[in-house]
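To illustrate the input format used throughout this study, we show a single complete record. The first block contains the structure-token representation of the backbone; no residue identities are included at this stage. The design step must infer an amino acid for every position from geometry alone.
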């Protein structure tokens, strides 16, 4: 006789088997997570040791610890970036570039990796290529604080361009930097000084005026505006700003020196507005005298055939008796003579003139 199918017993057995499978699956997942957590903790331990070694300047030892961390957690991009930084700091630019290439192959928009690679390339004197990667860092993706990190990357590039004296490239980076930069006085003064270095006195003056508007007692801002006015040939404006800066910072020797130079130029420049014909004539004679003295001192006892006639002509101009009716005409002639003598002196003498002397600055202004 066939026994009837024991349904309750089968269901119970099936349920127990299913429950066992679930328990084993959960246990397996728990153990996997526990192993992963332990691996991450171990990697983090190695990584923190590496950071401490880097702070101590022991980058070679730090590289080993970071590699241990990467062996435990291979896909951690932060560990790989730090490895590249340690390799760079240790002087192994080739290894650093290789590490960064690995990172950028998987994500070319990784701004932080692009920034480190830019530093590697700059270290290797591959500056034009480094600029490309600086721009990728500026416009790439940052994991956090993107606006601030982009600004810092651009500031780093700006400092390098300033050190290299590349005015055109510097100005092209300063213009967007001005829009994104913080409006604190320190940053704005820094930007203003760099605009001066880049040859944009107008941009610099705008920045310094903005600082003064917010804080009229900022001596650095007044000194910066003085430099901007000086660069634009407004010696009166420069003198005024340097006086204000010195009043606010009476012990600043650099400001005192710039004020003295601006005052000398104010007393010498024959192109200033408001001069009487006699004042302009006397200044033109002064320029002839100064240029003649400089040329004679440089040429010595045997001036060239090109310079000698101009020396004699300058002597004659200084001795000539000019009445008031002819002072304007004589002033023009004397200024032209001073410029000719200056150019001949530059060709005749091996010793270059001081480009920042009052005489050189006034003659350069007149030649514009």
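Output of the design step:
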């Amino acid at each position: 006789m066939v026994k009837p199918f024991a349904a309750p017993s089968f269901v119970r057995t099936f349920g127990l088997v299913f429950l066992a499978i679930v328990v084993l699956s959960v246990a397996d997942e728990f153990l996997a997570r526990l192993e992963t957590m332990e691996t991450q903790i171990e990697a983090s331990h190695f990584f923190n040791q590496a950071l401490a070694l880097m702070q101590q300047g022991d980058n070679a030892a730090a590289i080993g610890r970071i590699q241990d961390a990467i062996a435990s957690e291979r896909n951690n991009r932060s560990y790989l970036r730090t490895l590249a930084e340690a390799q760079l700091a240790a002087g192994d630019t080739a290894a650093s570039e290789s590490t960064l290439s690995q990172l950028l192959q998987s994500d070319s928009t990784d701004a932080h990796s692009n920034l480190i690679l830019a530093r590697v390339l700059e270290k290797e004197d591959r500056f034009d290529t480094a600029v490309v990667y600086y721009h990728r860092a500026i416009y790439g993706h940052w994991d956090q604080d993107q606006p601030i990190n982009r600004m810092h990357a651009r500031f780093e590039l700006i400092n390098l361009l300033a050190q290299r004296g590349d005015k055109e490239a510097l100005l092209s980076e300063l213009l967007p930097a001005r829009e994104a930069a913080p409006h604190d006085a320190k940053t704005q003064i820094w930007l203003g000084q760099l605009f001066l270095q880049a040859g944009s006195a107008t941009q610099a003056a705008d920045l310094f005026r903005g600082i003064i508007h917010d804080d009229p007692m900022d001596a650095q801002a007044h000194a910066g505006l003085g430099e901007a006015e000086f660069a634009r040939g407004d010696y009166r404006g420069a003198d005024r700003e340097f006086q204000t800066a010195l009043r606010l910072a009476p012990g600043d020797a650099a400001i005192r020196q710039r004020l003295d130079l601006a005052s000398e130029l104010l007393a010498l420049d024959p192109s200033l507005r408001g001069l009487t014909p006699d004042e302009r004539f006397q200044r033109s004679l002064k320029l002839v005298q100064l240029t003649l003295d400089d040329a004679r001192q440089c040429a010595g006892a045997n001036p060239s055939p090109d310079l000698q006639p101009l020396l004699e002509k300058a002597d004659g101009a200084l001795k000539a008796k000019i009445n008031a009716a002819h002072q304007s005409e004589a002033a023009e002639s004397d200024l032209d003579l001073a410029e000719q003598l200056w150019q001949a002196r530059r060709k005749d003498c091996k010793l270059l003139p001081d480009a920042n002397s009052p005489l050189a600055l006034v003659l350069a202004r007149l030649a514009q």
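Structural context for interpreting the output: Residues 7-55 form the longest helix (49 residues). The chain is about 80% helix and 0% strand.
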